[in-house]
Amino acid sequence: MAERVPLREVVRLAAPALPVLAAEPLYLLVDTAVVGRLGVVPLAGLAIGGVLFAQVTSQLTFLSYGTTARAARLHGAGRRADAVAEGGQATWLALAVGTALLVVGQLVAEPVAAFFSGSREAGDSAVADAAVSWLRIALFGAPLILVTLAGNGWMRGVQDTVRPLRYVLAGNGLSAVLCPVLVHGVGWGLPGSAAANVAGQAVAAGLFLAALRREGGLRRPDPATMRAQLVLGRDLIARSLAFQACFLSAAAVAARFGAASVAAHQIVLQLWFFMTLVLDAVAIAAQSLVGAALGAGGVARARALAGQVTRYGLVLGVGFGVLFAALVGVLPPVFTGDAAVLALVPVAWWFFVAMQPVAGVVFALDGVLLGAGDAAFLRTTTLAAAVLGFLPLIWASLVFGWGLVGIWTGLSVFMAARLVAVGVRAHRGRWAVPGAVR
């Protein structure tokens, strides 16, 4: 019988990972509150610039998740130095991609901001101008954010989630202090927000680089390793784009049913995103532990871990489902006092509640399969679930007037399809390929 991993080992990795995942969304709330005092135009400029910047950087999370999978196998095989070096190659890749983003972003900032702000020509809109002023400075943080992603990846791979917590909180803490000082105190306005972001990102990236150098991970660039990371990245980017297409389509369709519908959808969707952060912390622990087990040749241990984290995810999901069911009359009024919106929230709310156990299992098994390097399977099944399940129901909702019921039915079908796919995959065990490198 395979050795059982104590729950405290999962918690040891998952607990510090959760604040790291939540740090950026929480900081964005602070940033929004500070800029909001400047008026409508700067806030709208931040909204457009921030969304554009986040859409680009969020597609490159393979530098974190992909690096974790590869480094964890090497760490499990007793090759810690090589696991850290994997982080070094991911860091070189982060610097190269980040620099390219910086250059291209500066070239296209004006026309892209004009398009998303509704301007016919670049520069003829106050909102577009505000977005460009923020974006041109924020883009200098692109290489720094990607270095931080790579740093998170290799440290999770060697089962260290405490240092990333300290580094990310140090960077975000500095940004949170500088933001009001630069925006209001110094009088830089909206560009001060972007400058505060870059300063915090520089601190976090610098700490990760210093740790990598101390452990001898900054070796010469190795094209073969970086190509392998890019192959894994291709699969993870395709999977991420499927999520983006679904959620953007859902928001667009919800908006067609009026302001109250889109507001109710937004409230429940933001709670859904928050819950994905909590469950992703368990997935990160699973990814690190499963990768290390397979790297050490422990197929039975990896499969036992898959069963354990699945049960943990289910328990968490059931617990959160019960909690949110009890809060149906309490939590929505925290977000709005509008009677029309509050009347529509329960339509989406009960789908959200019912999906919690499903999400708990799916995200746990996502972590297992990512730890095994089974990204191609996750890419294919996520795209299939989106194209065959989520997207048809979303657009059918528009055609047939199903509203939020149709949209959230689509999300439920999407999650159910993913549950079946990852559940069958985990049960068959084909993902459990031993060795330091898959």
From TrEMBL:
Record's bilayer topology term: Multi-pass membrane protein
InterPro entries in alphabetical order: DinF-like (IPR044644), MATE_fam (IPR002528)
GO CC annotations, alphabetized: plasma membrane
Endoplasmic reticulum recorded as keyword: no
UniProt keyword terms in alphabetical order: Membrane, Transmembrane, Transmembrane helix
One GO MF term: antiporter activity
Keyword Transmembrane helix: yes
Residue stretches spanning the membrane: 46-69, 90-109, 134-155, 167-188, 194-212, 236-259, 271-300, 312-335, 347-369, 376-395, 401-421
Localisation: Membrane
Domain of life of the source: Bacteria
Family classification: Belongs to the multi antimicrobial extrusion (MATE) (TC 2.A.66.1) family.
Record NCBIfam families: matE
Name of the featured protein: MATE family efflux transporter
